[in-house]
Protein 1
Amino acid sequence: MGKHDMENFYNKDRFSQYVGIELLESSAGKIRAGMKIKKHHLNSMGTVHGAALFALADAVFAVASNSHGNIAMAINAHISFMLAVQEGVLIATGQEISLNPKLASYKVDITAEQGVLVATFQGMVYRKKETHR
Amino acid sequence: MGKHDMENFYNKDRFSQYVGIELLESSAGKIRAGMKIKKHHLNSMGTVHGAALFALADAVFAVASNSHGNIAMAINAHISFMLAVQEGVLIATGQEISLNPKLASYKVDITAEQGVLVATFQGMVYRKKETHR
Amino acid sequence: MGKHDMENFYNKDRFSQYVGIELLESSAGKIRAGMKIKKHHLNSMGTVHGAALFALADAVFAVASNSHGNIAMAINAHISFMLAVQEGVLIATGQEISLNPKLASYKVDITAEQGVLVATFQGMVYRKKETHR
Amino acid sequence: MGKHDMENFYNKDRFSQYVGIELLESSAGKIRAGMKIKKHHLNSMGTVHGAALFALADAVFAVASNSHGNIAMAINAHISFMLAVQEGVLIATGQEISLNPKLASYKVDITAEQGVLVATFQGMVYRKKETHR
């Protein structure tokens, strides 16, 4: 898919929009999204919720894995949390680490200001024969 | 913490509230939460977003891991997705699988109606010396 | 596959034999393997090596996932370590947690004497159309 | 620890020696190990066993995580398998992705000849106050 198709795909992702995630870059092979931390992103301790971090990484994972045109369904994901953050803007940057006809894997890093690592995410998809129209 | 304290803890979890997750049961050793699927939970394919499923499991994980009184910080989590669902109510049920002074592990299953398995989640926390007041 | 075929399948698993893992039970839906701890299983700290624990769980995972007849290829696995052990016999017990035509997931628990939990493992396979023989 | 101490640490790792893994490089921040594929590394399908790949990555993880002097205990690990291989030499290269007083995370890539990616591994340790003498 081209840049325009990836943006269209992302615009249909209602949960990511609801959480407040913005697609920043979607050129081939480089997907980035951002999330400005707001009150609704916080957990009981007042830091960004692990599930909000997961949502940010997952938004990038979805665009990256569907960017080849075939429908890609997430089959599993793993996230490690390095740092608790309370404010500012978080950036997720994705990278394809393997691709074959049926399966593909992606790595997403989440960083805070000055590039400090907040979380790392790795996810795998099953690639269907069906393509996005 | 008693049932009341766990409910108080959960009520401060702003992200889980925002997503629309409800704590259903919080007696010692048995934590359950529910999420009625709404439009804002869906992904670009019109099924429940992986990150919404993660959020549901994570809400249970947070209550379960903090239920002993010590502050518990998630250090990593793994989720496997078994089934795409579009509507109805999802239930997450948590279980502690190990506990030592510094670390603890939890397993959460997400099921749809009739108990069919939608996703499995496993998470680990680091337990601080500090307790919830 | 029947019990006999699963044993044949396991007997061709050279790495598991080399490590010293024994298939204890392979009736449909219940796979168990054992490993008597020997010097060559230890790590630099003198406790059972994480990779030896992984090998024990993986042996069960391989038999369980191939037991339906289709060739099953591991695509990923996750292991959590709960307890360091130094001697005795370890037992791994597997369970299928999901199965569809292309993908399946398995959970394996490793216990030491008296059933104390040493590690938990979860793995996913891609199921080929090709069957064994 | 210096290069010499890391080699000493690795030489006490009996399981890795037994599997046939060789420590190739252990300068600060760069750990590499190699495994020449032999018959005893193979699974029932005649390709390198997932647990042998895990062992190779885990050997690097152990040296890297113990290189700061404190005793580091693996608490969990995740491996994704990209490619089945049958012969040649496999190389694992490790990298520290986060480090704090209690926890640290490492990433290890396994490649075959020409640098093609065979598996990716990520592991986390708990760091004890005790140091290696």
Note: Strands of chain C lie at 21-27, 30-36, 70-81, 89-99, 103-111, 117-131.
Protein 2
Amino acid sequence: MQYDVVGIGNALVDVIAHAEDTFIGEHGLVKGSMTLIETERAVELYRALGSAVEMSGGSAANTMCGVASFGGTAAYIGKVDGDDLGVTFGHDMLAVGVHFVGPRPQDDIPTGRCIIVVTPDAQRTMNTYLGVSSLLSPSDIDEQIVANGKVLYMEGYLFDRPEAKEAFRKAASIAHANDRLVSLTLSDSFCVHRHRPDFTSLVSDEVDILFGNEDELLSLYEVSSFDDAVEALRAHDTLAAITRGAAGSVVVTADEVIPIAAERAIRVLDTTGAGDLYASGFLYGITHGLTLSQCGRLGSIAAAEVINHVGPRPLDELNSLLPTEE
Amino acid sequence: MQYDVVGIGNALVDVIAHAEDTFIGEHGLVKGSMTLIETERAVELYRALGSAVEMSGGSAANTMCGVASFGGTAAYIGKVDGDDLGVTFGHDMLAVGVHFVGPRPQDDIPTGRCIIVVTPDAQRTMNTYLGVSSLLSPSDIDEQIVANGKVLYMEGYLFDRPEAKEAFRKAASIAHANDRLVSLTLSDSFCVHRHRPDFTSLVSDEVDILFGNEDELLSLYEVSSFDDAVEALRAHDTLAAITRGAAGSVVVTADEVIPIAAERAIRVLDTTGAGDLYASGFLYGITHGLTLSQCGRLGSIAAAEVINHVGPRPLDELNSLLPTEE
């Protein structure tokens, strides 16, 4: 089986609840960011949280679901347990046709979860208890699957654990050895801050396609203006797609900077998954021979779909949203 | 602690997915109804189902959450396991302030779940795997809690298991011994069909407030016209609130029949929980000294809120939707 995209990341189920802005302050959360939390903190936060909805998530997993929803082929590598959440995660991957090797009960470590607090401004604040997803290691990287994907897509989040970082490096070298493209999402500006030297060397040496948002790019190059960050990026021969929220996105190459308009969302209810789905549209485009501008537009379309409802994955079939004139 | 309403029912987590009408036919489902399923069938259906969302459900549990959301006090008796779904269920009850004795791991029987298929017409078709919820027995009925509730509210679904039926009867006699009101929801027209003799004798002898929809009432009295069903009902001294979908509802007493308009929903996305939430508004009204017509209106308001989004429990605080002029 050939895949358009093979994704690797932290396999998580999202626990999503709405809260007022005061909740963010009272619980010492950093609005809009992703924070890693341990068991005790997860229990404490969950206890304080209002009624929640459980939906499969995980950044790269969301992206793979988006690729499949556009009609592309995708595989995913990530770890879940055989508990209820793990079964849910596995089901939801197979349900959209993403190749995924299902839950394997492991040392009684539960499936990871991401407690997401959505404030009235539709911004999401994420608190991740990694659970078994953090055990991803080089031995989990299936060489055949990575070799069979036109593009390898990996989360910056993987750098938060040494073993997962090794898995990342192993996958990247398999991909390159097979003439495949390697793509990376910067994941989160705090994540970039934690791993800046690693990320800058990755971007200049190993990454063929870079995804990130404006904040993450500013953090990567430690600059304060977007134009400066774009200039820094252009010094490398890396294709990049950088999202800017309501301002749309830009596609950056050594030769050009292509602005992409944001697709108009009917309502903005929950921004969870916006970046993940943007990447799915872009990757679907890249693997289907579209122009960079068309790739960016598919990213915008997918992001607009996912912010229009609660949850990090598309509810509509993205394939039905493909522009007819392209 | 005194409660406005004490609810007893099958404690379930809903697994909700959208599907086309063809899915209903292909899998031999009965559209709009609730069917009890065993493990094998649950696994088979779940496998066929698209991406799903997990949210706490259970008919009487939804109603108790509605009562709490209106600002009333509520307690709930039902059984969950200590697995992920059970923990989720317990969290979501406490999160809205419903008194609930949380998960107790029991003989490795999993928390019950209801696989709900929502078709494009917003109709829901329910397939219930009862799991540990079916072990509800008389020993689970906490005499003090039932005695402390102004109204006891129970699901007709409880009659599907002999032990739960005994629990139902025990709770009803505790309530009456303490001069409390006993209310029943007919749950489902097939459920009424299964237990017609029990339900008719309950309605004439033990039930003070009856909830149901038009189909369930027609099935109860084996008549084909709504007017005939209402006449049959009026022969007993039972207060009844009967919902009629978009046509609103009627409140029936021995002396009068009060029509209640449906509250206009912005959109109708998923009718799951409409009846449960109608009951919550009515019960909140009854326990707060409102007129029958006002009680019905609160029922309509709560039902309109819940059909406007996916999931069986309110997302808005129902208290904020209370009419100001009343």
Note: Chain A has a mean pLDDT of 94.
